[in-house]
Amino acid sequence: MRQRRKIGQLISTIVFFVAAILLLAEGLDVYREGEILKAILIWTGATMSLLGSFRFLIQKWVERWKNEQQK
C-alpha cells in the first residue's frame, strides 16, 4: 500500500506541474489578445498549480519553521 501511495503522489505532482506550464502558456495567449483580467486569473491558477506541485517541499519548510519557532 505504501508504494501505491508514493506512485499516486508522484503522478499528482507531475499533473500539477504540467497544468502550471499549460496555464502559463494559455495566460500568455489570452494576454496577447488583450484580455488582461482573464490572463491574471489564469496566471493565478498557474501559480496555485505550481505551488501544488511543490506541496511536500513547502510542508517540510513549514514544519522546520514551526520547530524553530518552538525553540
CA(first)-CA(last) distance:
36 Å
Instruction: List SSEs in N-to-C order.
Output: HHH
Low-confidence stretches: none
What share of the residues lie within helices? over 70%
- Structural class of the secondary elements? mainly alpha
Instruction: Tell me the total number of β-strands.
Output: 0
Rg, rounded, reads 16 Å
Please outline the major beta sheet: none
Q: How confident is the prediction overall: mean pLDDT?
A: 93
What is the overall shape?
Answer: flat
Strand content: under 5%
Q: How large is the count of helical segments? A: 3
Topology:
Layout: H1 2-32, H2 36-53, H3 55-70
Helix pairs in contact: 1-2
Task: Characterise this structure.
The structure is a single chain. With 71 residues, the protein is mostly helical. Helix content is 92%, strand content 0%. It has helices at 2-32, 36-53, 55-70. The N and C termini lie far apart (36 Å).
Structure keywords:
mainly alpha; 3 helices
Task: Summarize it.
The protein is mostly helical.
